[in-house]
């Protein structure tokens, strides 16, 4: 039996829940969960905001633990090995995206917390090719968010061939943005933080920003016109996107990893005239997650965390809902 914490209705309190996972499939592994991050995606699913939650619902897709069992076809992982499990717990393994290494674009991918039970538990199961070995020397208690927030902001560096000489901006310095600053600085880029909080200036400079622009000050944004090769937005707010497009160099890119709550209101002519782009990307493939973890380990990149015990799960969720968490929340045994 697996002992977990589950909600039994939308926005419900998580309670102890036991379930029988049945026989381990040949291509699966079972992980003993040591740490699991809490992400806003868990809250979205808990509250059924995406209209796809099945109850009882066990959240948790930022898992760090050790292999407890391996299926008979699994060759690249071993019992006792330290691994991580992120947003996806399996893929179709048959489509062109899986065959080309873009598993995160697979239409038949199996999210860890959609249609299955996640990592707010003592154990969790997943397809072996979605489970990522954790590099030696990684700080395990803080590593979970790298499997979601970390790869989400690292993925654009790979996808768009961002160069160390590029100038990049990060909109919003929260759970995603504070990791983006660290990754982009370690990549070698000239990094600017766009933040609405003057009180965060010293912190964002320490995290990796070389410059800070007040995102509520239109004059400051306009003064940066034509400066950036890439601007990454991590926020869900509706901003003056035309001002950020104006801050791009020709061939520059405004890239979304956060989801604005309203449709984008943008002028096409500045895009056309400067051959600028608007794009977005999800999570990342297993191979890029591995690259990200190795890069993070080499450069000592890790999230700032608040830690709770698993039996404090409801308190931890309320802390995340409050918007006051700095910056990621971890559940630990």
SSE blueprint:
Blueprint: E1 2-6, E2 15-19, E3 28-38, H1 40-46, E4 63-70, E5 82-85, H2 96-99, E6 123-127, E7 131-133, H3 140-143, H4 149-159, E8 167-171, H5 177-187, E9 190-195, H6 201-207, E10 211-214, H7 218-223, E11 228-233, H8 241-246, E12 248-256, H9 268-274, E13 277-280, H10 286-298, E14 305-309, H11 313-322, E15 328-332
Parallel strand pairs: 8-9, 8-11, 9-10, 11-12, 12-13, 14-15
Antiparallel strand pairs: 1-2, 3-4, 3-6, 3-15, 4-5, 5-7
Helix pairs in contact: 4-5, 4-10
Describe the protein in words.
The chain starts with a strand and ends with a strand. The strands form three sheets. Strands 3, 4, 5, 6, 7, 14 and 15 form a seven-stranded mixed β-sheet that branches. A six-stranded parallel β-sheet has the order 10-9-8-11-12-13. The longest helix has 13 residues, at 286-298. The model has no long low-confidence stretch (mean pLDDT 96). Strand 8 (167-171), helix 5 and strand 9 (190-195) form a beta-alpha-beta unit. It is α/β, with parallel strands linked by helices. The chain has two domains: 2-147 and 284-332, Medium-chain alcohol dehydrogenases, catalytic domain (Quinone Oxidoreductase, Chain A, domain 1), CATH 3.90.180; 150-280, NAD(P)-binding Rossmann-like Domain (Rossmann fold). The protein contains eleven helices and 15 strands. It is globular and about 60 Å long. Helix 4 packs parallel to helix 5 and helix 4 crosses helix 10 (286-298).
